[in-house]
Amino acid sequence: MRVLILGGDGYLGWPTAMHLSRRGHEVAVADNYFRRQACAALNCEPLIPVPDLHERARLWEAVSGHRLQVHIGDACDYDFLSRVFQGFQPEGTVHYAEQPSAPYSMMNREAAVFTLTNNLVSTANLVHAVAELAPGCQIVKLGTMGVYGTPNIDIEEGYLEVEHKGRRHRFLYPKEPGSLYHVTKAQDGDLLYFYSRIWGLRVTDLHQGPVYGVETEESGTDPRLATIFNYDHIFGTVLNRFLVQAVAGVPLTVYGKGGQTRGYLNLKDTLACVELALRNPAQPGQYRVFNQFTETFAVNDLAVRVQAAARELGLAVEVRHLPNPRREAEEHYYHPVHTGLRELGLQPHYLTPEVLKGMLELVSRHRAAIVTDRILPEVAWKK
Ligand code: USQ
Question: How far apart are CA 233 and CA 182, in angstroms?
């Protein structure tokens, strides 16, 4: 399959490009380097330095024999996006080209407007590019479990059957996002749901929980093929942050009571899920939703597990409860359904002590590069 990856330089985009090309797909990557530039501007450089996208593609071709097409440009620029579509004629597009950080979206007005504009305009451009230039191309868009919030009922996979005054209707599951970033992910889903119904687009929205991990089967062959791994308070996700904190000897930063529960998955499983979605496409006119995670944990559970794994490696790790910079429930019911991807054949990589120790060992090899003043949260939700 010819697959275009928008956001192909990012934490998920680059490993996805290698993964799909190794499995025989023809892959093009497009990226505007937003993440790299924002990391440099905000003192949030990733732990492991990585070469630019052209160099990454050259290295990947040298070790694997697979060639990637590289396009540097912005999915919000329709001239750029339509040139890529016309040249490559994708049969599938994976849309990762969104501003992915909740704290970034809550920093200030400029960051809020950028998040709104970038995430919605890139999605609208993609819809038009598919409809005008590659009809039949399926869209796989990275969504987030955070669009649902933490309701006091079970979370279904995308839709909810409602009975009202004796009649029934199937709606998109109600959304209660907890940051502006999460709001934009609810809105891009609404756009795609709309256009799938109106123009018959084939869409899969992967509502993913926080991802952890560094290595994939493909990156293992050369450290320069590693993904962008953030541990700072803006772009780092919680478990990746805890691993770096444990190695740096900094207390683990649990926000508030630590009962916040989310669905987590290993980076390797993200890649498998995206490929499963592409290989089993949505039908024309279908907006299909999968809840993409493999296990649920409260933040406190993660802290205890990291502490135990670190202890086995001789690292003494403290846990500190900080005042929560976010507005979110710290104790709540959480029961999301997640059967769709398992039914398509997902074989999960679970968060075992061995997996944690492997990640701690990898982070330890880069210990000298850890900058501890990137760790404490500086962005508050409350004004
Ligand atoms: N948290 C801590 N300590 C930290 C960092 C986070 O207690 O040092 C807590 C947060 O308050 C939150 C939970 O851990 O309750 C998860 O936070 P996170 O930063 O790992 O994840 P989040 O901001 O929700 O966003 C991340 C990705 C985003 C993705 C989302 C999936 O950045 O792209 O969509 O995970 S989900 O959380 O299911 O919405």
Answer: 17
